[in-house]
Amino acid sequence: MTADSSSTPRRPWRGVDAEDRRARRQEQLVEAGFTIMGTDGAAAVTMRGVCRAARLTERYFYESFTGREALLVAVLEATARDARQVLVAALENGPADTIALLRHVVDAFTAHVTADPRRGRILFVESLAAPELATRGLVLVEEFTSTIAQALRDLDFGGDVDEQDAELNSEAVFGALAYLYQLWLGDRLPIGRDRFIEHVTRVIESLARATSVDADG
User: Is the pLDDT of residue 217 over 60?
Assistant: First the structure.
């Protein structure tokens, strides 16, 4: 009786098993997509161009992705995940004072997106401009704003936190910051890094204090 080849373990090649090799190839493709998308934009990303940059054949592209759109989404998700981790880490390890903590978080996030300009372009330009990313981009916005909303609930701005205020304010913070970073990273806001961080900090503080509780009464 012939053994089912699908159930036969694949032998390691140079000490690396098949699944690890597949994961590495997928990482190479995502990294290549990140480079092209972050440098020339989502429209410049093609399957062949990504394969050339990753030094892989088209066969390996379709091993990991159903098509170009799936790769773009994977690049955006990886970039957003890294940025969100920076936010969470900064919130957990910052100073106790509310404004000092906000400044610390803004500084950490700004350092992250300026350390590699491709990150900022993907997060604040391509995620909003590329039609292929529209649906997934909205989901990632929700994930970002949920992180911001939780932070606004936890921080002390003097007064009781209303759930709807926190939700509305987190959306406002995300929208304001996305636009400010888009302009600043694109050199359309000619101000220095220190002043930009301070201004963003104050914008978050102001928006976090917004309330419409009395309108329900």
Answer: no
User: Which 3 state secondary structure label does DSSP give 193?
Assistant: helix
Q: Is residue 51, in this structure, part of any structural domain at all?
A: no
State the CATH number of the domain containing residue 117.
Answer: 1.10.357.10
CA–CA separation, 42 and 124 (whole Å): 12
* In-domain check, residue 42: no
* pLDDT, average across residues 32-51: 96
pTM, 2 dp: 0.82
Q: For residues 111 and 36, what is the distance between their CA atoms, to the nearest angstrom?
A: 21
| C-alpha dihedral (77, 78, 82, 87), degrees to nearest 10 | 0
Domain holding 109, by residue range, is 72-210
Domain annotation covers residue 9: no
Listed residue (96, 89, 81) closest to 154, CA to CA: 96
Q: Record the tokens describing residue 46, joined without a space.
A: 């093609």
Q: What is the tens place of the pLDDT at every residue in 6-26?
A: 444 455 545 567 888 899 999
Spatial distance between the Cα atoms of 189 and 103, rounded to a whole number of angstroms:
19
Is the pLDDT score of 123 beyond 70? yes
Q: Read out DSSP for 117-185?
A: HHHHHIIIIIHHH-GGGHHHHHHHHHHHHHHHHHHHHHS--SSPPPHHHHHHHHHHHHHHHHHHHHHHH
